[in-house]
Amino acid sequence: MKQKLLGSGLVFLALALTACTPLGWGWGGLSSGGYASNGERIYFTGTSANGRISYSGGNVGGMMGGGQLACADCHGPNGRGGRHTMHMTVMDAPDIRWSTLTAEEHDGDGGGEMEHPPYDEETIKRAVTRGLDPGGDPLDPAMPRWRMSEQDLDDLIAYLKTLD
What we know:
Elements: H1 2-19, H2 38-45, E1 47-48, E2 51-52, E3 54-56, H3 58-63, H4 71-75, E4 82-86, E5 89-93, H5 98-101, H6 121-130, E6 145-147, H7 150-160
Antiparallel strand pairs: 1-2, 3-6, 4-5
């Protein structure tokens, strides 16, 4: 009986720890050294080869309780976003593939009307660091505001350009 309870407890602990890791959904399955670029590493881990990346603001940051968060946790391994639940909160993460962000017909909610102008490299940097869309309006409050070097921002954008 003790062995069965111990086994059940270990399974529960393993599942709980997996749910709290940056790649808890199973995105990528890459090891810490298996990234083709610094931008890919940033996207999947929220860390950089050049130093730690941090975030503030956004409802997600508070929900994570100080844990590490990464782009892929919300936007998925392919950048297509979608509806998901994190810590009992339902979120709709937008598609952040380069082709979608920079499209002239950009439509944030699928309703058919353009909500803001298309993104470019500078407005993507502003969205990532300040939480503003190309029109200067705030992004969804769940979007964290990331602090990273200019080189890391360039590397992340270069990686976003590979997603399709």
